[in-house]
Write a structure and sequence with these properties.
The protein has 355 residues and is α/β, with parallel strands linked by helices. The chain contains 15 helices and nine strands.
Length: 355
């Protein structure tokens, strides 16, 4: 890496002393910080109103709309961090992959990647490809002030799964067939995706994101030995590529209880935990030197307030001995969640954990 290409270390900013960034750095906090995955989304009536008639990918490319959607849960819920409104396939669309997000289905790829010749579809991502991201983050950081903005990207394995399968899958038979049957092609595919993902995160950090999260949504489909051999190197490459910026790096997957230690090895500062593993046990699996994020079951929010508070206390008690804890759900906010339940949850965690 040349001096011109080297990352610039992030300097202290208005967000540096926020509860969220302090928790990520495993420093003392005034209260346990809270944010939610998919907090800017379908559970909010104001989100549905501004998105009406606008396709998902188009909404990700309109800076003013991205700004409004990202800010909505900060205004409504009082969360400790905003997460940039986008989709994990945005960088793939930006480099020319023919895909669309179909309502009720998810990302659908017109020409799945199945052969070495298909890798030619994956060119490098440049900042110019996603200039709307730079513009939107500039607008957001001015509005957010001392509230940190989290950038994000899909991890190489999850992106590869969509590209090879051609869309969502429950079994990943095509992706796993390539991983087992042509490991060199698989490694080259993930390596290219690692470069694209790292470039996408760098754009977000350089525009002003205070932290980044890598979503490996489907990594829970893997056995630990396969994750270590066939997935971890690409994720580690992404985290290493942005290490010099000095912003916290979060790593999250669903159903990854058996992979938590390996996900920590990949290089994140914070490991996200879904609801299947208590946080104290997750800390044992991850090992020292990492903060944890999580991990209330999203479906708990459909229960009465007293039950939500009881389950929240269980999470907080499990997190009591952690070096650093960011409260979150164990996955994303479900579309039919009552927004007021989220607002009450934020207030409850803040009050319960006030130092």
């Amino acid at each position: 890496m040349s001096a011109n290409d080297a990352p610039r270390a992030q300097q202290p900013s208005a967000t540096y002393d926020s509860a969220f960034l302090k928790a990520c750095r495993r420093e003392p906090v005034p209260h346990t910080p809270v944010w939610f995955m998919r907090q800017a989304g379908r559970s909010l009536p104001e989100y549905r109103k501004v998105r009406e008639g606008v396709p998902m990918l188009e909404s990700c490319m309109r800076p003013e709309l991205v700004t409004e959607i990202t800010l909505q849960p900060v205004r409504r819920h009082g969360v400790d961090a905003a997460i940039y409104f986008s989709d994990i396939v945005v960088p793939l669309r930006a480099i020319g992959i023919d895909l669309d997000i179909k309502p009720g289905v998810g990302p659908v790829v017109e020409r799945p990647i199945r052969t070495r010749a298909d890798l030619a579809q994956l060119r490098d991502l440049t900042p110019e490809d996603v200039s709307y991201v730079t513009e939107a983050i500039g607008l957001l950081t001015r509005e957010l002030g001392a509230t940190p903005l989290i950038g994000f990207a899909g991890a190489p394995f999850t992106l590869a799964s969509y590209l090879v399968e051609g869309g969502p899958s429950r079994t990943y038979e095509n992706a796993k067939a390539m991983m087992y049957g042509d490991p060199e092609l698989w490694a080259d595919l993930l390596d290219r995706l690692a470069d694209i993902t790292a470039a996408f995160l760098k754009v977000q950090i350089e525009a002003g994101a205070s932290a980044v999260q890598l979503f490996d949504s489907w990594a829970g489909a893997l056995a630990p030995v396969d994750y270590r051999r066939s997935v971890l190197p690409a994720s580690a490459k992404v985290f290493e590529a942005v290490a010099g910026y000095g912003v916290p790096r979060i790593h999250f997957g669903v159903g990854t209880g058996e992979l938590l230690g390996l996900m920590g090895e990949a290089g994140a500062d914070v490991v996200g935990v879904d609801w299947r593993v208590p946080l104290d046990e997750a800390a044992r699996r991850v090992g020292p030197g990492k903060a944890l994020q999580g991990n209330l079951d999203p479906t708990v929010l459909f229960a009465p307030t007293e039950a939500v508070e009881a389950k929240t206390r269980e999470v907080l008690e499990s997190a009591a001995g952690l070096e650093g804890h960011v409260f979150n759900l164990g996955h994303g906010v479900m579309p039919s969640t009552d927004p007021d339940a989220l607002t009450r949850l934020v207030e409850y965690v803040h009050t319960r954990t006030a130092r």
